[in-house]
Structures are given as structure tokens and as C-alpha cells.
Specification:
2 copies of one chain form a homodimer. Chain A is α/β, with parallel strands linked by helices. Chain A folds into 2 domains: about 120 residues, Aspartate Aminotransferase, domain 1 (Alpha-Beta Complex); about 220 residues, 3-Layer(aba) Sandwich (Aspartate Aminotransferase, domain 2), CATH 3.40.640. Chain A has 10 helices and 12 strands. Chain A has a 5-stranded mixed beta sheet with strand order 2-8-7-6-5. A 3-stranded antiparallel beta sheet of chain A has the order 9-10-12. The radius of gyration of chain A is 21 Å and the shape is globular. Chains A and B meet through helix 1, helix 3, helix 4, helix 6 and helix 7 of A and helix 1, helix 3, helix 4, helix 6 and helix 7 of B.
Amino acid sequence: MNKYWSNFVNTLSPYTPGEQPEDKGFIKLNTNENPYPPSPSVIEALNTVSKENLKLYPDPDARLLKEEIANYYDVEQSGVFVGNGSDEILAFSFLAFFKKSKPILFPDLTYSFYPVYCNLFGIDSILVPLTDDLSIELSDYYQENGGIIFANPNAPTGRCLSADVLEELMKENPETVVIIDEAYIDFGGESAIPLTRNYPNLLIIQTLSKSRSLAGLRVGFAIGNTELVGGLEKVKNSFNSYPLDSLAIVGAVEAIKDKDYFEKTRKDIIETRKWLCGSLENMSFKVIPSQANFLFTSHPSIPAIELYGSLKKMGILVRHFNTARIENYLRISVGTRQEVEALEKALKFLLAHGGV
Amino acid sequence: MNKYWSNFVNTLSPYTPGEQPEDKGFIKLNTNENPYPPSPSVIEALNTVSKENLKLYPDPDARLLKEEIANYYDVEQSGVFVGNGSDEILAFSFLAFFKKSKPILFPDLTYSFYPVYCNLFGIDSILVPLTDDLSIELSDYYQENGGIIFANPNAPTGRCLSADVLEELMKENPETVVIIDEAYIDFGGESAIPLTRNYPNLLIIQTLSKSRSLAGLRVGFAIGNTELVGGLEKVKNSFNSYPLDSLAIVGAVEAIKDKDYFEKTRKDIIETRKWLCGSLENMSFKVIPSQANFLFTSHPSIPAIELYGSLKKMGILVRHFNTARIENYLRISVGTRQEVEALEKALKFLLAHGGV
């Protein structure tokens, strides 16, 4: 609280990202990063691109990247928006589409940045509770609203709705913008991007941080109707002409281009998730069915907060949320097979000894 | 205009950055980029840093960079804020400090992104006219306000106020935040950073895009009282946890570290500016005294818009603003000696032949 701040700053409750420890010795299964490095062609391009040209501003429209994304998803280039991570695109989208007289709708348990944006931009919201098994029940969203947003697969649960089911929502909700945050869609879900052809109020947001192994490069994108993207461009160009730096554009282009590496790494993660899910269930964990690169899980006898603390002492970071309804769950990112085997070993030890 | 947009989106008038032509053959003197490449140590660091680690999120606080900036300017690390270019920091600052009941004050002619932020965030403003010779008269700002901002040196004029003069403003204006945008301060001006020790309502914003030759890497920083910076951190953490990517942090750290290269290149630019100023005056141009890496100039007989168009045909880009009071000026970035000699040759031809 400071007399020089705008009043609303006092009321902000910023988002808390997962720990990014300076100690690089941890097995890091807490922020849903990809355990594999970026594609070798990304690394090659970043190593060889001229750094002398960093004296010049980047292309403010990042046309090369938009073109690559448009080709990959078979959409118009004018229907592609890019930003400094999907977080920036979410922020712009809340401003561009959700500053309405009616409250927006999102699940009580989903990406916890959504209420932070509402707070920042003065947007009213209604939290729609997940069902008892932590599912999104779409008919709960068939009500007046200023917009709808959720993650699919949802976070931190990992549950995923099919595109067919999502189309029902679009049919029921033609008047306001629906944003589907597909940060985790490449790990087994079905993208709703094809629906953007028929529904001018549907915006899909994705990121290169997870399935493209580029969390460190901060690149996200959105796909939707040209006019929706036009609204985002107006907000972006009223905020920062050049949100993507020249190296981020180069790296992102190569990441989208290298389809083989993308297919191989996401398949490996899906297989490791399957193995880890079986391993956890063998140890009596309850595991929510996940189409994401993480598992949301609880144990019948050891509280999640204790497991979190014990694992941290043993050099393994997982994510625990101090949030009603899910305080007894851990969110575990799917690492390499070696990393999740180390996790299994640690959990077996903890279950046998009741802690460290 | 689209029915899905928030109403205010229809009223936005986005900022128009200078042209970034795809044709790399132009002599580019239009966006105040540095004509010299970044320091060799920046290039070396960017070439050798592990790209494998881009799979991990960056440090959300960019501590290594804040530490380097704090050391360089001899301020507390908690008084340093970093962002995705100074534009992002300006946007956060308008939200954090200028969303007040009273209008903010800024010059009628200054960085043209300021009115865009007001528009975006619903902030009232009063434009304070520059004097007839395009100077800022500080006593014009001794009035009730919700905040004050201007660039020093001012853009597009290049005129610079001394820190002593700025201290008078701080004494007169203790109740609201004063932001001095020092994007161009390293080309001959005197930074007001030392004043931040005594004035808790003073925020200085700088960029690595100009004097550090890193426009392509998108890094800016702000220095001020710890509580002011705390307000910025709250807004930033409600918008994007990781605005600076891992490579931008690495490059920026090295750019701040290499003091010798910084001193040499800024000295070279100052010398070239002096040469270009003399050259323009020899051709009867009126040149406003500049402490920036650009000159603001008009010719008594040939309209600026014509010169702009003719130079573009001859492969030289300069900036022309279609703005009342300055429509007969050109803003010319100070390039290398070779580039400004080519400009001189082109102008001599145009003055002799009355156009191309």
C-alpha cells in the first residue's frame, strides 16, 4: 500500500507461478515444463542466426511465425495472433473481449491466472463449480454471460473435453466470446481449432512452452476468426508494438516446422504419463484421467502437503495448491522416464516409512 | 468494429511504429536504432548459452539482470524493475500510477504512445503544449494533476533538460508520480536516476533498444523507490509472470556489463550527430539542438513530406510525422558516418534538383 499507487493496485492478488529454484539439482516436476530440450533445429537456428541484427527492432507483426502457424493448422494468416507467452495473449483477450456489462464464466478450479486478470482489468466473473469428480459440466455454462473461458485439458485436473462436446457449447452460446485455453492439448486431446471456421466467437489459445519445449522463449499464439484477431491486434498495438523479440520468432518458427520431433516427444510424454499413472495407482493413489503432461493425484492415507514437503526434501519438486477442494492433491508434471522412476522410488520409500 | 469486442476496443487508436521494411537494402534512419551491433560479449554469450535449457521457464524475477543494473547505477536491487521493452514498462506504469481521478499531464509533442496508453486504460490526460521553439517549459506543469510524464531527451525533438532543472519539478510536485522516460539519455543527457534517492514519487524508465544496440531483444528497465517498483511488480505479476525470456536476460546482462563498448559506441554516435548537424545546417536546414541519437530538422524551401518521399525512393528511410506543428520536420536517426554521408549526398542532390 503506497499513496502513489492507483487505488486498484492495493486490491491486486498477483498470480503465483510454481517455484523456479536457483538450485538446479532438483528433479523438477512442478511447472509442467517439457522434460525434453527443444528440437535440434531450434537450437541450430538460435546458434547460427545473426546476433548483429539484434540492433534492429523485430518485425512487429512476426509475419514469418504467423505464416508457419497458419500453414501448420491450415487456417488464414489473418486468423493467427502471437504474443509473449500465452499469458500475455490471455491478458489481451480479457481486455479485448471480456470487459462487458455481464460477468464472465469460468470454473472454480482452472488456471488460476483467470481471476487475476479479472481483478487487474475490473471484469466481473462467476465461478462455476466443477462437479464432484472435478469435471467441467458444460450445461452449467448455458446461462447469460459476458464471455466464457476454461482450459482444455483443464488445469490442474488434466481432464479433457472432446471437440464434439465443445461444439454443443458453441451452439448454445452464440452471443459472447468463448476462449478455450489449449496449453496442454498436444498431449492427447483434440484441438477445437477446426471449430473456429464456423464459430466467429471462438478463440483458441495455445503456447510453445509445453509441447514445443520452449517455456524459456515465451511464445504463445491464438487462432480465431479474423475479426476476433483484429480486436487482439488493436489491444496489442495499444500496449507494445514488439512483444516478440527477434530470437523468439526464429526459435518458434523452427519449433513449428519440425513436425517429426514434435510428434516423437509428445508421444514419449504420453507413454511416460501412462506408465506413471499405473505406477501411482499401484501405490493406491487416486489419479484423475489426464490428457495433459501432468497427473493430478491424491493418496488415501498421506496428506498431499506432507508428500509435497517430503519429496522436496528428497530433491523432487511437485506442485501443491493450497486451495479448497484440492488441498489433498498433488500436480505432478510428466518428466522423462528416468525422472518419474526416481519419483516412484521416493514415493515408495515415503509410503513404507510414513515420511522422511 | 465487431460485436464480440469490448466496447472500448472500438475507440482505440493504436500506436504506429516506424516502418520495418522487409527489403533490407534501405539505409534505415527512421526508428532510432543503434547503427552498431551489440557488444561482442553479448553476441558471444547468446551464441554459447545452452539452448537446451529453453525447455525451462526463465527466472520470473530476472534477478541476474536486476543485480547488474543495480550495480551499474548504484541503486538498490529492489528499486529496479525490468520488462519486455520500455513500452511494456510504460504500459504497466500508466496502470500502476496514473489511473487516478485527476488527469495526467504530458507534452502535446512527445512519445506518441502516451495518449495510446491513456486510451487503452481509460486515463484522462491534459496535453501541455511545447513552447514555440518546441521546448518543455516545466512551470507549465505546476498545476493539479494525476501524474506527469515526458521523455527526456524529448522525442521527436531531441531537446534535453538537466537534472537540476528536473529537481525543481520534483520539489513542486510531491503528491503524484513523475515518470521520466530516458530512452535517449545515454547520448549526451544527464540521467535523473540519482534523484530517485530523494524523491519517492520519481520513476525513471530506460531501454536497451537504443544505446545498448538491443532493439531486437526487447528489454527495458525502470529505477525508482522500492515502493514504486513494488507497485509495478504487482501489476506485472497480475499480467505475465515471465515477460523476459531466458535469452533476453542473458544478452541484457552482458550489454550492461560491457562498459567499454557502451562508452565507445555512444561517443561515436555523439560525434556523428555533431557532424550531421553541421552538414544539415550547411544545407540551410534548421536543426533543433539534440542530446538524442536523432536530429529533428526542417528545410526552409522543400516540404518535409517531399523530402521523406524522395529519400525513400533513393533507398533512405527517415521518419515523418503527420502531426500538427511538426508536419514540416523530419526525424533522422544518427547512423554510421558512412550512412549519414550517404544521406548528405542524397539531400544535396535533392536540393540541387528539387526532387527525384
